[in-house]
Design goal:
With 126 residues, the chain is mainly beta. Helix content is 3%, strand content 47%. Strand 4 and strand 5 form a beta hairpin.
Length: 126
C-alpha cells in the first residue's frame, strides 16, 4: 500500500522561506519509476497545481503563481521529494498535498495522480 506523508508545514511571515518534504513509506509499492508533485488548496479555493517532478528528477514544472519562488527536488535513495519555497506570500496559505503516480512524468493535472498524502498546512501571515 502506498502511503505518502508530508511534513514541514507551519506558520511563517511574508517573505520567509519554508521547505516541505514528502516521504513514501512503502517504496516497493510504487516501483522504481514514479512521478511526484505538489498541489495546494487554499481557503475557499479549488486544489491547484504547484510543482511536479519526473521519476529521475530531470524534468520539472511549476504553477504560474509559484514559478521562480518554489523549487521541487527529489532524492530517490531516500524516497523523498522536497518543495523549497522562498519569498512566501499570504496568498500561499493553503494545505499542501504531495501526490505520486507510477509513471515517469505526471505533469500538473490532478487526475494524473492516484496516490495522495493527507496534506500539511502552510500559513503565511502578512
Amino acid at each position: 500500500q502506498v502511503q505518502l506523508i508530508e511534513s514541514g508545514g507551519g506558520l511563517v511571515q511574508a517573505g520567509d522561506s519554508l521547505s516541505l518534504s514528502c516521504s513514501e513509506s512503502n517504496p516497493t509499492a510504487l516501483g522504481s519509476d514514479y512521478a511526484m508533485a505538489w498541489f495546494r488548496q487554499g481557503p475557499g479555493r479549488e486544489r491547484e497545481f504547484v510543482a511536479a517532478i519526473s521519476w529521475n528528477g530531470q524534468r520539472s514544472d511549476y504553477g504560474a503563481s509559484v514559478k521562480g519562488r518554489f523549487f521541487i527536488s527529489r532524492e530517490n535513495t531516500k524516497n523523498t521529494v522536497t518543495l523549497h519555497m522562498i519569498s512566501l506570500e499570504p496568498e500561499d496559505t493553503a494545505v499542501y498535498y504531495c501526490a505520486a503516480e507510477a509513471t515517469v512524468w505526471g505533469g500538473g493535472r490532478i487526475s494524473e495522480y492516484e496516490y495522495w498524502g493527507p496534506g500539511t498546512q502552510v500559513t503565511v501571515s502578512s
